[in-house]
Amino acid sequence: MKTFKNFIGGVWAEPATGDYFDNVNPADTRDIIGRFPRSGAEDVERAVQAAKQGFELWRRTPAPIRGDVLRKVGDLLSARKEEIAQLMTREMGKPLNETRGDVQEGIDTAYYAASEGRRLFGHTVPSELRNKWAMSYRRPIGVAGLVTPFNFPMAIPTWKMFPALLCGNAVIFKPAEDVPHTATVLVEILLEAGLPPQVIQLVHGLGEEVGAAIVAHPEVPLISFTGSTETGRLVGEVCGRMHKRLSLEMGGKNAMIVLDDADLELALDGVLWGAFGTTGQRCTATSRLILQAGVHDEFLSRLVDRVRALRLGDGRKEGTDVGPLINANAVAKVERYVGIGQAEGADLLCGGRRATGKGLDAGHFFEPTIFARVKPCSRLEQEEIFGPVLAVIQVESVDEAFAVNNDVRYGLSSSIYTRDVNVAFRALNELDNGITYVNAPTIGAEAHLPFGGVKQTGNGHREGGWEVYEFYSETKVGYVDFSGVLQRAQIDTYLGTPD
């Protein structure tokens, strides 16, 4: 079994703790991918000091040159796409078609970031005084601490890392302990592409040990975290006390609305992908299905038939539709929510138990699950599960569907299936989410648009697109007075009045 290391201070280094953890294939827990460092606060301290040195070098590198490095990263990811997808499926579980898409999102993000190296625009504006220029520009902030989840081992780290690097920051990267191998390969590719070694630090370990130390370090002014709302709240409290810039991307309880006039076959395809893609382990997963009464019974009957036909298994095997959950704790959580749904009186139509037999016994598999007649405001309808469980709610009208969608504490993604263009545009206006899809499922964000939500899904910042570059940089304003005399803004020669 291979033993992996951290990357700190330009070298691959063993953890100061001397401790390691096993990286396990969730489809077959007998398959140990490798041993990875269970690092501690001393490792984080070394990483911070190295990153500070890297920042002083990288911030002085012209942004177009920083972009050229990221373009090379995109080229290398493209060349190794299939290899990375295979290793990602082995450690994370989702089928190869999904991990190929995960790598492709990293490729797209790299090429998009590369182009932004020539587009870090500021503004030049007229001064109110004569013989004076006024302008603004973007500049980097410092060391960025990035704490990422397991469900998108390549895409989410690149969403955070590439804009941070393009803007001139140094990075300390703490990946989820369930997917350390993909993170290691990503850092290897960055170094191969020519990123100065001290600009990127990779520190493996547990969230409560390494992640918490990065968040609380006084010399890490910039934190980006993706994870649960509960953990995000703790991160926010620490960063608030320490006056850090913070981006939070947290939970979701996303609903897909199917109205009486919808294309039902299209909607069936959408909910299958939205609810059970990535085994439901997406912050954008379709966790709620809101069906108008006129199509409720027919749609639900057809959906149950389609779900029962889904094939569970190792994501590297041809024909697998749904892979495993990430670990034993995730299985136990889904089981608890099945019990909650039954206790609340919802009807369990299919699934609801661990999947066994046919090569599944050694993995963390759970049957795709549907509950019908779920009551609005019940726990099953309100709380994020992060697994293959779909709660179905029947409504009578468009207004009721919109109200049910909005009546949760989260606000990440929503979707609506309808042929009525007026209702579609009402949904864009009235559904209280950061993202709304029309005639498409709740998943499917594209790398060149902002990604994020409202309410307890986040704190207002966005990943992806053009907005993320504003998070990873700060505005500086410059004034150049070449008049040769003292000029006082708001006092002298206001509105061009002659002296």
Structure commentary:
With 499 residues, this protein is an alpha/beta fold. It folds into two domains: 6-250 and 458-477, 3-Layer(aba) Sandwich (Aldehyde Dehydrogenase, Chain A, domain 1), CATH 3.40.605.10; 254-438, Aldehyde Dehydrogenase, Chain A, domain 2 (3-Layer(aba) Sandwich). Helices cover 38% and strands 20% of the residues. It is built from 15 helices and 21 strands. Strands 14-15-16-13-12-18-19 form a seven-stranded mixed sheet, with helices on both faces. It is globular.
Compact summary:
The chain is about 40% helix and about 20% strand.
Which shape, going by the Cα principal axes? Answer: globular
Question: In CATH, what is the homologous superfamily of the largest domain?
Answer: Aldehyde Dehydrogenase, Chain A, domain 1
Helical stretch tally: 15
Give the proportion of residues in helices.
25-40%
Instruction: List how many beta strands DSSP finds.
Output: 21
Sequence stretches where pLDDT stays below 50 over 5 or more residues:
none
What's the end-to-end separation, in Å?
Answer: 81 Å
